Amino acid sequence: MSRFAAGIRILLVLVSTFSLLLIPSEPAVSSIDLGSEWMKVAVVNLMPGQSPISIAINEMSKRKSPAVVAFHGGNRLVGEEAAGIVARYPDKVYSFVRDMIGKPYKNAKDLTSSLYLPYDLVEDSRGAAGIRIDDGVTVYTAEELLAMVLSYGITLAESHATVPVKDAVISVPPYFGQAERRGILQAAQLAGINVLSLINEHAGAALQYGIDKDFANESRHVILYDMGSTSTYAALVYFSAYNTKEFGKTVSVNQFQVKDVRWDAKLGGQDLELRLVEYFADEFNKQLGNGFDLRTSPKAMGKLKKQVKRTKEILSANTVAPISVESIYDDLDFRSTISREKFEELCADLWERALVPLKEVLRNSGLKIDDIYAVELIGGATRVPKLQAKLQEFLGRNDLDKHLDADEAIVLGASLHAANLSDGIKLNRRLGMIDGSSYGFVLQLDGPDLLKDENTDVLLIPRMKKMPIKLFRSIKHNKDFEASLSYDKANELPPGVLSSKFAQYSVLGLTETSEKYAARNLSSPIKANLHFSLSRSGVISLDRAEAVIEITEWVEVPRRNTTLENNTTDSFNVSTETSPGNTSQGNAESLSSDDDADISPNATNGKQDNDIITEKILKKKTFRVPLKVVEKSSGPGSVLSKDSFSEAKIRLGALDKKDAERRRTAELKNSLEEYIYSTREKIEDNAEVGKVSSEEERSFFVEKLSEVQEWLYTDGEDASASEFKERLESLKAIGDPIFFRLNELTARPLACEHARLYLNDLQKIVNNWEMNKPWLPKDKTEEVLSEAEKLRNWLEGKEEQQKSTPIFESEEVYQKAAKLQDKVASVNRIPKPKPKIEKPPKEEPVSQENSTGTSNNTSGEPTPEAGHTTQDSVDSSHAGTDQERAAHDDRPSSCSLSASAKSLIPKGPVFSEGREEDERRLVCPGCGIFMQDTDPDLPGYYRKKVVAPRKEEENHFGGLSSDSDGFLEEEEEEEKEGGIDGLASGSDLEFDMDDLSDRILMEGAKEGEAVDDGIDWDLDWDIEEDDEEDNLRKELDGFAPAGVGYGNNTEETLEKRKKEKVSKSEKKRRMKEVKRRDTEEDSVTVCARCHSLRNYGQVKNQKADNLIPDFDFDRLVTSRLMKPATSAPVVVMVVDCVDFDGSFPKRAVKSLFKALEGGNRHYKPSKLPKLVLVATKVDLLPSQISPTRLDRWVRNRAKAAGAPKLNAIYLVSARKDLGVKNLISRIKESAGPRGNVWVIGAQNAGKSTLINAFAKREGVKTTRLTEAAVPGTTLGILRIPGILPAKAKMYDTPVLDLHTVVSEKHLLDGDSVADVGQTAHVGSLMRLDLTQASVETIYVTIWASSNVSLHMGKTDNADEIRTKHFGIRLQPPIGQDRVAELGAWRQREMKVSGNSWDVNSIDIAVSGVGWFSLGLKGEATVVLWTFDGIEVTQREPLVLDRAPFLERPGFLLPKAISDAIGKQSRMEAEKEKMREEQTDFLLNASI
Predict the structure, then answer these.
(1) What is the dihedral of CA 705, 706, 710, 712, to 10 degrees?
(2) How far is CA 1213 from the centre of its chain?
(3) CA–CA separation, 504 vs 486, rounded Å?
(4) Selection from 980, 915, 953 nearest residue 1349 by Cα
(5) Are residues 263 and 173 in contact, defined by beta-carbon separation less than 8 angstroms?
(6) What DSSP designation does 693 have?
């Protein structure tokens, strides 16, 4: 590969395996780090072209946003808009709303007063604080204001992800109690956010700390120290690892557990700033000197606090910092300076307080400082140098740990938690999380006749109990009672909480239930079960309650034997339980009916049958009756009532609509203003406008522009969106025709030039048809030429008229040219016809062998014997209609048959249809064609085996050698032709990485052993769609790291296996085993066609091959699949992973699903065919792709190709025996003992190889199917015996979808740098030109064979490079002769776009050749050159990763080509030297 010049960079990847990777479209989730002053938002989005986890930036391109809301001038402002007016209107900008949630009014009042926030607080009906906005009437609760902030955050996430985002994880401080957590959840609900979970801030930071580390060898204790805006805490986290099974092997999985957390909720960076605010306020008061206190002016304090924040930040990096506040009060400016030393002195008492949480964590854990692996600092205030110095002093360490981003660690860790909880995203890097409750909870019970004991006042959940958890408590009581939940008094209460009790419940219905069952024979006192849950969010609740009643009654049961008398005591263990959903009355009724059902039948039987004797036994029954639970919580800690919530939802909805209209108005106003200025500039500066418009038009237009501009800055200042839109459209109505004509000045000539070039090339295309495609109908080519002449005449006429008057547009030219191109393409796609098989005269005799099985005649004709009617002649679905027979017989023929040849054509079908009667004829086991030994020019010819001497020297020509496939013919010497010595221009390159790999594996692994590539491919990968989401929820994982997944057979591992020492005896044994298997396989007689394919890789006798009729898949397979059967058939669709789109059997799938649509209306689903998609050749995939990801990608591509519903998907490698065991097990299970299995696939998908692998896996001695990378290795339906058990049958079917396969080798990877106007050649098979781009950098990854040469250069000389080096340095792997079969070399222009350079955004796949993966952040136009006969597909990227290194410009040649060129160069140099020596000799001789 090569490095281009600087500019737009193209990443070209060539790996030793065909590399693929999934990224399907996935829903995005977000995380919100909700602070007192700031808010950070992260997005997890697996959409193509985007970073998986990233921080969402706001409208000011900042990574954190102010968590503030403002109301000004009747408008609501949030985030940066609100922060922009805080200095001027401090009473209208509301911050710290998070800290008002769940707090009493007095606590909120104290908070705002201490921070000098001039809010108009109002006490609501709950006793909580609300804020009255600037209109003096409207009051918003803290939940509503916080909902506005959260809605702003989720809007940032959606803008960043470019997809809707509704799911989020929100981080909260560990000291938040039940009221705060419930309030935040309700605020998120008001904002329309589905909260997956609340997460403690320290847990989010711990996730981010541990996600990229390995704790398998060493566990560690880490303290996370966080000082934020208003609080400080220290959390002790224990990181470790445990072993588990993954992909069939033992792996180590990281996990962490939060051991303890301690905090100071009243100490944060805000307290440090307030010390500076107080200091500078005093200084200003002294400077003013009139007794005025600056603290009484809210606006002055707002300006001062804003500048103090900057001053504190400066002091973190400098010893002295200035402060300057303009017009701080009464048009007076304030300027001063402060040193870091003075600042530290002002906060002297705070430094010791900052160490308290850290000391408490160590003391309560019993750990020493030396036991702590690291103390990680997070939070913005930890950047203060004095705080870091105090921590270093206490810990006795010279350096503190700062591996995490102090601002973003929490939100990034929370995003990992969000991804894990999401249903739509699966991560592959696992990190187990165990967090605990920050508070302990106590259950208190109270009620009439309820004795106070240890059961009525219990510790329900101790502190640091892991979350989530469910539990229940039982109480023996028979009357309604009260239950309350309180904080454990052994620990401190949440900030602002005055009472430990936070929830009160009434449990009703127990008294009524006890009275109803009092008359029954109770075996034990009635008790009540209370079911509690502690959610992931740390919220505890009483979910439900139920009464448990146990009764014992005598019931009559039949006495079956005498031993029953001694075992009556066993019946006491019998119990029945009613449905929890029944009422107490319903249970009483069901009880009586159950008793009647038990007793009445027995009594009746006793009367009717004297042999059955009844007896009474005691039976115990248990009933669970639901009780009503009513929550009676009230006060500041309670959430909004249903009515208040509904009202708040309506108000927020109205604000959202108003904001949307305001934004729309602003956008239209900006658009109008921009249009006025840009249009006036075009008219004044562009001289070309004068050519397409008159002076009157321009003057009138300029006058209208000025008129609208004047209105815009006067009366239109407060206009509505509709008014701006109306005036913009009125201006465009005048200007658009002018600018359209201006654009046509350049667009029309370009369109005409494009059409002329195409017309000139069209004659070459037609000439190529006459040479290479003689079967194309003459009338079609003449029709193309006629249409071309019409277009030429029309174009010339229009151009002549255009000189005087505008007549036509560029779009007309493009449409007419495109219509002609479609016509040419339709003619070019006409396939080469197969000749019809003519029947011999009836009077000529037919051999008994050829007359056998004539009931299977593919043309549908009856057998010549009179009076005989076969089964298939009656079956209309098999025989076909007269029209079908006529259509079958009227196929055009590309060759003529002699009279003798016609007389030898078999009367019956040419190939097997897989029926039982076909097995009575001689069928080629390699391809399924009926064999004959009469004429070599007819299909199925073979020579009978001749008993020949076994000696080696007698097997040169006449004997039967072990590699002859039972077919005897003279060996032909293949003469190599071409310009490079040792490099066959007409055959495949003599360089096979597969052969190399096989030799190495043969030396390094024992026979029958699978290659260990790090994955157990026999795990069940056929994940059903219904179960997929459940599977995704079971794991906490991350993004698949490189080196995990497929294809771990890297060059290093192969080299290691190659060097592995194997004893001579072992090598000899292996070689003998290989030779024995080859002898068994090759001793079977096959037809001449299979023999040629196996030994020479091509069909030599094309004349006989042309006589083979097309395979009727609809009649021979689909119709048989849809027939009623005892068990549903199984269809195994084989697709090549490395060429998915090219190898997908589209025709077969279309036929099957069309039949299934009709079958759904007539058959039961269990009787319909079961579709199993098998993606083969996974051993060629790169190591970074995971099986789960590939499974999803395959499902998406299959759905796009026409297979929306599959029963299972399997990922296998038939050659490496990966996943074959599990696949064959699934096939056997689905087929059952009598089912049929049909294997279908396109050319070179690996169908025959897979069936051979089945046989090898099952130990079946069956004939090896012919495998070759050419069309039609299988011609008829072959029944494969022995693989399936009992009477089940497996059939191999012919190829339907053909595509060009030019290479199937391993790849290499690299990276190149390119600019616009540069080109990448891929072995003369495809070429990519970068013609235009709106960005500076583009990465293009090329996936192609390692035996394909590449060249990177400029587009200007791309044609010259290809012409000069075609067949030499740009050597096509299929040889130069076969290139002509691919069609015309033509270009296809494509527009691409993306959102990231880090990953690929789109693939351009060239069937059978490879593909380009493009990664860019912007838009670009590329031109793809390839042959007309090759399919090109745009799809979602298969590989996201770019190559790890860069390459230089020039050629990248495979070793085979490089060696051949070197050898040729040396020979030419020697010849030149000899000529020079001869010339010198002759000159000397003449002298």
Answers:
(1) 20
(2) 22
(3) 9
(4) 980
(5) yes
(6) S
Query: pLDDT tens for residues 1400-1436?
Result: 778 888 877 787 888 777 788 888 888 877 788 888 8
- Please give the helix or strand (H or E) that residue 643 lies within, else none: helix 642-685
Q: Which residues contact 796 (CB under 8 A, 6 or more apart)?
A: none
* Dist CA 36 CA 111 (whole Å): 12
* CATH code of the region 1019-1026+1112-1292: 3.40.50.300
Asked if residue 468 lies in contact with residue 499, where contact means CB atoms within 8 angstroms, the answer is no
- Residue 1208: phi, psi to the nearest 5? -165, 155
DSSP codes of every residue in 301-323? HHHHHHHHHHHHHHHTT-SEEEE
What pTM does this model have? 0.55
Phi/psi of residue 279, nearest 5 degrees? -65, -45
What is the CA angle 237-241-242, rounded to 5? 135
Question: Counting beta carbons within 10 angstroms of the beta carbon of residue 19, is it exposed (0 to 12), middle (13 to 18) or buried (19 or more)?
Answer: buried
Return the structure tokens found at 719: 């206009």
Pairing status of strand 1208-1211 against strand 1170-1176: parallel
Of 141 and 932, the structure prediction assigns the larger pLDDT to 141
Paired residues of 553 in beta bridges: 619
Spatial distance between the Cα atoms of 31 and 208, rounded to a whole number of angstroms = 13
Q: Are residues 258 and 203 in contact, defined by beta-carbon separation less than 8 angstroms? A: yes
Residue 271 to residue 785: CA distance in whole angstroms? 86
Distances (CA, A) of 505 to 477, 479, 542, 855, 1067: 16, 14, 8, 83, 80
Query: What tens digit of pLDDT does each residue of 541-587 get?
Result: 999 999 999 988 888 878 755 443 444 333 333 333 333 333 333 33
Mean pLDDT taken over the chain: 75
Identify the three-state secondary structure at position 1279: strand
Question: Which of 221-225, 973-977, 1192-1196 is predicted with the least confidence, judged by mean pLDDT?
Answer: 973-977
HEC string of 93-150 equals EECCCHHHCCCEHHHHHHHHHHCCCCCCEEECCCCEEEEECCCCCCEEEHHHHHHHHH
| Phi, psi (degrees; rounded to nearest 5) at 90 | -65, -20
Q: Which amino acid is at 189?
A: Q
What is the C-alpha separation between 1245 and 1301, in angstroms, rounded?
10
Beta bridge partners of 199: 171
Per DSSP, the three-state class of 21 is coil
Return the closest-CA partner of residue 458 out of 438, 472, 437.
Answer: 472
d(C-alpha 1298, C-alpha 1381), whole Å: 13
Give the pairing of strands 232-246 and 481-487.
unpaired
Boundaries of every domain in the chain? 441-491+507-564+577-631, 675-834, 1019-1026+1112-1292, 1318-1453, 1454-1487
As separate numbers, helices (DSSP H) first and strands (DSSP E) second, the chain gives 40, 42
Alpha-carbon separation of residue 148 from 79, 135, 652 (angstroms): 10, 18, 8
Among 679, 808, 658, smallest CA distance to 721 is for 658
Q: For residues 419 and 1427, what is the distance between their CA atoms, to the nearest angstrom?
A: 44
- Contact (CB, 8 A) for 540 and 533: yes
Q: How far is CA 511 from CA 481, 482, 517, 545, 548, in A?
A: 9, 13, 10, 13, 13
Q: Compute the distance between CA of residue 1373 and CA of residue 1060 in angstroms, rounded to an integer.
A: 32
Q: Write b or e for each residue in 1390-1411: b if 16 or more Cβ atoms lie within 10 A of its Cβ, otherwise e.
A: bebebbbbbbbbbbbbbbbbbb
CA nearest neighbour of 1130 among 1174, 1089, 1065:
1174
Structure tokens at 1313: 């740098």
Task: Please give the full DSSP string across 1107-1127, using - where no structure is assigned.
Answer: TSPPP-HIIIIIHHHTS--SS
